[in-house]
Each structure stands twice: as structure tokens, then as C-alpha cells.
Amino acid sequence: MPISPRRSVSGIEQAATARSGQYALMADSRPMEVLTPNGVAEEWTVWVEMATSHRSASLTLVALDGRAWRAEQVDVFECLLSLRDQVEPLGIRLCCNGARRGAWASGMQRDMGMGTSVYLLAETVPGKRQVQALDPAPAESIVSVQEQRTWYSDWLARRSR
């Protein structure tokens, strides 16, 4: 079933939302560079919504042709992983920081910031920098969700030695 994303005139909106009895803290749209199955870079739109009363977030990715995919989770980073799980089998790659090999949201980033930022973890255990999960990233730094999860698991194992 096609999804109709909310339209926003002002970018970030703060408004009461009747949907599910939640109070929408933020609703925003932003451009998202994607690599299509044929390797062409296109600028699609991603809608971000975060609600406070039930601590939830959603991302809706809208293609140029109107197709849309939606993920709802407890935070933005988890939404991003879920959204990528939906589009990667179709050959679509999202070119954002949260899709990079060493990108991962810490518990504090998820709890205090709703997973809007991630650390770019270094191969060596010490060393990390914080970036916004949905900000653009070079296409050559993007990996699949599975590769990202495996890298993070291996990084944790190296850290515990």
C-alpha cells in the first residue's frame, strides 16, 4: 500500500498529533542521496518524525517516482537500520552517516538524543567521533546493514580483549 508522507511548509514543525494519541515532538523532511539499483545517485526525501509520549520515531523514504517505505522503531538509528533492511534487497543504498561501516549509536545517543547521532568508530578501539546519522556520507563509505552489524560485533569483540 502506498504511503502518503506528511507535507511540511516550514521544515521543522512542533504540533499536537492525534495519531495514536502521541505528541509529535518533531516532524521534518530532508533530502537523502540514494544509490539506485543501476548505480545512479538520486536525491530522494526522507521524513523524520519523533514522538515523546511513547518514545517512538519513524522514517519515511520517498522516491522520485512516489514509491515510499516506512520504518517505526524506538529511535532514529533503529528506524534507519529497519528502513535499510527494506530497501537494500531492492538494490537501493542510502548515502548517510548512519549507513557507514563504523557507524553505531551508543545507548546514551539513543536514550538522550533519540538516535539522531552516531559515533564513527575507528578500527582501533580508542578513537571515535560523533556525527548526525542522517547527514550525507560518501557513497564509497556505505555498507549493507548486515556488514555494518558484523563490523560492530567484531569491534565489540576486539574491545573486550
Structure description:
- It is built from three helices and nine strands.
- The protein has 161 residues and is an alpha+beta fold.
- The strands form two sheets. Strands 1, 2, 3, 4, 5 and 6 form a six-stranded antiparallel β-sheet that branches.
- The radius of gyration is 16 Å and the shape is globular.
- The N and C termini lie far apart (48 Å).
- The relative contact order is 0.14.
Question: Structural class, from helix and strand content?
Answer: alpha+beta
Order of secondary-structure elements: EEEEEHEEHEEH
Low-confidence stretches: 1-20
Q: Compute the gyration radius: what is it?
A: 16 Å
Instruction: Tally the beta strands.
Output: 9
Shape summary: globular
* Overall structural domain count: 1
Strand content: 25-35%
Biggest sheet statistics: 6 strands, antiparallel
Give the overall average pLDDT: 84
Q: How far is the first residue's CA from the last residue's CA?
A: 48 Å
Throw out a few tags for this protein.
161 residues, alpha+beta, 3-stranded antiparallel beta sheet, disordered N terminus
What secondary-structure arrangement, pairings included, does this model have?
Layout: E1 13-16, E2 23-35, E3 41-51, E4 56-62, E5 68-73, H1 76-87, E6 93-94, E7 103-104, H2 107-113, E8 117-121, E9 128-132, H3 145-159
Antiparallel strand pairs: 1-2, 2-3, 2-6, 3-4, 4-5, 7-8, 8-9
